[in-house]
Every structure is written in structure tokens, then in C-alpha cells.
Amino acid sequence: MKLITRIAYTVVAVSLIIGLFFLLSDNEATGKGQIDVLVYDQSETVVIEESHLFYEGDTLFKVLQRHYDLTCADSQYNPDTDCETSFSRGRILLGIDGVQTDWNHTFLYLEKDGSMANYGVDNIELEDNSDYAFYVKNVND
Amino acid sequence: MIPLKRLILISMAVTIIFVQEQLLMFIPNVQLTTVLIILFVSVFTFKESFIMILVYVLLDNLFLGGLNPFTIGAMLTAWMLIPIAWHTVLGKTRNIQVLAFFGFIFGFIYGFVFIPFTMIQTEVFELWPYMLADLPFQGIMATTNFLTVLWLYEPLYNVFEKEMPSLGKKQTPAHKNL
Asked: Shortest Cα distance from B32 to chain A (angstroms)?
């Protein structure tokens, strides 16, 4: 195959991959609104039940970060309170205030308006008057 | 019976695939696994390819996934499509362009193969959200496959072809389509 053909293929492929990474970027709110945040501990007792305002450009992670002490997974899935490691689908939240999970045995399960969330805290859509509930789940359940 | 030198070669192939995958794990779906498996499949017999893929899948799952049968089943099915395709529809080709486009399509097929296994495991039988959420990752894998096969297959194959006599490879016809 000619080098020029290979380079042409490569340019097209690299453009495609850049576009795909753009598709995976955070889902930021386009307006403002209010959400309810509920956090349950392992015994399913509600620990946090609060309403928060969100603004244009916010994500659920940003809203949570403004109000709570968060623990995220670092690149080795160890707890990291800086929450600087973002995976391709955003951050992995391990803990909110006193409710902590360890990734290997327990994890935070997110529900939006009572239904299992398809996205994580960086990518889930912020919708006015919605509630976002976090539960501690065992990996083997 | 597989000669000892060939068995060693298979184990070295598994090691190379496994180590590079661990090294590149921090970038999701960006890996050299596909180009390496295509390379080894085009060098090994079908039986040898099957052994290599089986050992690699078991090792990978032992290390990362706790031998989850759903993941093993999906990975084994998906990776085995490479030797099956190479020995059938691809007509044992070594044409880079054909292999690069095959790698691209394989990136999507690999993701699709996981869907039924994941549905059974999670008991969430909603196809479209899963497909849409996975599509960008399939695209990344497909593009990575395309680029790595396009640029790396030929030099890697040339190394194999040069070193094969000392590694116990039987006589193979020289490829013409590179």
C-alpha cells in the first residue's frame, strides 16, 4: 500500500477518534433548576436528603462537589479525595460524606427518579425537579 | 501433537498480548490486542490460534475479572471470530488494507458480542441504551484496530517471517499481498 494512502486513511481515522472522544465529554446542564439528592447507607437508611440548585454548565458531580466531601476512584481504583481522575465515562464516585464504598466489595448505585441510571455523575443529565438517589450495593448482590 | 518450540511460541504470544494490554489499560479500548491476535492468527494454525486465545482469555479473566463466565464466554466468542474469519471469509489474506478494514469492523463486532452476555448477567434487557452507550467505545476500538493494523501488521509480520525458521515454524508460502 502506498504511503500517501496510509496517511490519508490515518487522517480520516484520527478525525473519527477525536470526534468519538468529543461525544464522550461531560453532559453539562444547559439551564438552571433544582434537584433532590438522597444518599442511603448500607442498611438503606437515608443519610442525606437535600435539595440543591444547579446552573448552566453544571454536572451532577459539580453539584455534589459544591455541597459534600466526595471520594472518587483514582486510576488504580483506590480512594482519592481530590477526584482528579476521570475515566472515559467520567469519574467513579466511591463516597459521599460518611457513606463510603471500596469498589472491590461495595459500590455506589445511582438512581434517577427511581430508575437505574444509565450514566455516571459526570454524564447523567441534570433535570429540573428530578431526584438522584445513591445506594450502597454489594458487588455480589 | 504440537512441537515444544511451537508451544513456547504460543506462550510467548500470550505473554506479549497480556502485557501490552495491562500497559495500555489506562486508555479505554486503545490496545494492540487486535493487531497482535491478527498477526499471530496469520502465523499460527487454527488449532494453535484457539489455544492462544483460550489461554489469553483465561489469564486475562483470572487477573482482572475473577473468572466471570459471562465475560469469559463473550471474550472467547469475540476473539475466536478472528481466526474463524481469517481462515474462512478473509481467505487467509495478508493484505493490509483488507485486514485493517476487518479490524475496524471487528471493533464493533467485539462490542456487539458482549451485549447478550451482559444482558443475561445484569438482567437488564434493554438493547438500545446499551448499544448507544457502547457505540463510542466500539468506535474507539474500531479506529484503534484500523490504525494499528495499518501501520504495525506489516513490520511485525516481517519480523516473524524473518525469525520463524529458528522458532520451529513449518514451511509457509511467502505472502505476496503485503
From this structure: 16
pLDDT in tens, A75-124: 778 899 999 887 767 899 999 998 999 888 899 999 999 998 888 899 89
Nearest CB among B136, B137, B147 relative to A10 is that of B147
CATH T-level fold of A33-138: Ferric Hydroxamate Uptake Protein; Chain A, domain 1 (2.170.130)
Q: What is the pLDDT of residues B95-121, one digit of tens each?
A: 999 999 999 999 999 999 999 998 888
**Number of domains, chain B:** 1
Joined together, the cell numbers standing for residue B162 give: 524473518
The string of DSSP codes covering B77-122 is: HHHHHHHHHHHTTTTT---HHHHHHHHHHHHHHHHHHHHHHHHHHH
- The distance of A76 to chain B (nearest Cα, Å) reads 9
CATH of the domain at B113: 1.10.1760.20
